[in-house]
Specification:
Distance between the termini: 45 Å
CATH architecture: Alpha-Beta Complex
Number of domains: 1
Number of strands: 15
Structural class: alpha+beta
Shape: globular
Radius of gyration: 21 Å
Largest sheet: 4 strands, mixed
Strand order of the largest sheet: 3-15-13-12
Oligomer: single chain
Length: 387
């Protein structure tokens, strides 16, 4: 199916509001070049399509090896292999980045682009053409319960994702994956050189931290695994094969596992940078974590970890959007966190591993304004005669 011949989809208003950004990969990738639920989260069903970038501009280039394109879903027992998504692969001769980032490289404040991106990043093909550098993406969120809007617009960095036409499940943060013959084992290969927004490597250890130190920890996850991570009456078992490879093993076939991985359920797996999160975990910092909790005015290490790295059960709080210190894999890095009534501001992540075409990092920032603040601004403008 080509980009210009997408089949129409009928979606509910709820699903549209919650997951309208999942298919906006083209928009998110334009900036580039989950609040992540705990494993017990309720599944969500994706639906809708992406937005179009604007006109092209003159970028600055650095010659590097050719990246791979998106990967279509492979049959069970067959390793996924690189293929183009809706368009033939262009001849790759250079990677390009925003002039602002190139200036930081020249000043020695940022590594060269070839040192910041994965060796084989996922290259997203633009719908029409690569846009020009600069600009701000503005959006509106409905309040504290609407963090899903942030997740679906600037937070869709799961191991796998739906392709633009909702026809196939393709690698995203993962470079490739394998499924065994009966659908009970799923092996994911990560992208070599992929980094968090602070420049630290993203490796299998980060996924194992999610599994061993968050999901299996009764204090942090008392409800245990969600049903999508169970099969044959038993919980999933996650194994580290090497620094770039992890395997999810089920006691029985789990045919919907990859589909669930593409929804909000899968965001937690790539949410925890171990090098940052371990300082707030009692296992890794037994002598200092309670002191850190007191200094942060938190009631013990569990609440400290929740506010710094995950979320507070029963509330809309999600550290992904409320803690700007938390490293991320997202296209934008939070600079002004969500407070429920004002605005969320995020700036371009120079280490984002998903470029658009051959061009890295288009939009400079993303601003989501809280509806309460927007209403107040409109009311003020009406009093002042501006509206």
């Amino acid at each position: 199916m080509t980009e210009g011949s997408r089949r129409p989809r009928v979606v509910t208003r709820r699903n549209f509001l919650y997951l309208s950004g999942l298919a906006a990969t083209g928009v998110v990738a334009t900036a580039c070049g989950g609040g992540a639920p705990l494993p017990g989260a309720t599944p969500q069903a994706p639906a809708t399509t992406g937005a179009q970038p604007t006109s092209a501009a003159q970028p600055q280039a650095t010659a590097v090896p050719a990246p791979t394109l998106g990967v279509q879903q492979a049959p069970r027992g067959v390793q996924a292999s690189p293929t183009a998504q809706g368009a033939a692969a262009p001849a790759v001769t250079a990677r390009k980045e925003a002039p602002q980032l190139a200036a930081l490289v020249r000043e020695g404040k940022l590594p060269p682009v070839e040192q910041r991106l994965p060796k084989a990043p996922l290259v997203v093909q633009p719908i029409e053409k690569v846009g020009k550098y600069g600009g701000t993406w503005r959006n509106v969120i409905l309040g504290g319960a609407d963090l899903a809007t942030l997740t679906t617009t600037i937070g869709y960095e799961h191991l796998v994702r739906w392709d633009r036409d909702w026809d196939n499940i393709v690698p995203n943060v993962a470079e490739s994956y394998e499924v065994n013959a009966d659908g009970s084992e799923f092996t994911f290969k990560l992208r070599e050189g992929h980094k968090w927004s602070d420049g630290q490597p993203f490796t299998a250890d980060d996924i194992m931290f999610w599994y061993e130190d968050v999901s299996l920890n009764k204090d942090l996850n008392p409800g245990g695994f969600g049903s999508w991570l169970k099969s044959g009456g038993k919980d999933v078992v996650v194994e580290k094969i090497d620094n770039r490879t992890v395997k999810f093993k089920f006691a029985a076939p789990n045919g919907l596992f990859l589909s669930f991985m593409c929804t909000a359920n899968g965001s937690g797996i790539t949410q925890y940078p171990k090098h940052y999160a371990q300082q707030f975990h009692k296992k890794y910092n037994p002598d200092g974590v309670e002191r850190l909790a007191r200094e942060a005015n938190q009631d013990g290490w569990i609440r400290l970890f929740q506010t710094k790295c995950s979320g507070i059960p029963g509330t809309p709080y999600n550290a992904v959007w409320q803690n700007p210190e938390l490293p991320t894999l997202h296209a934008w890095d939070i600079t002004a966190p969500f407070t429920g009534t004002t605005r969320v501001t995020a700036e371009r992540n120079p280490y984002c591993g998903r470029p658009l075409g051959l061009t890295i990092y288009i939009l400079e920032s993303s601003v989501h304004v809280g509806l309460a603040a927007l209403r107040a601004r409109v009311a003020t403008g009406m009093v002042a005669g501006e509206v």
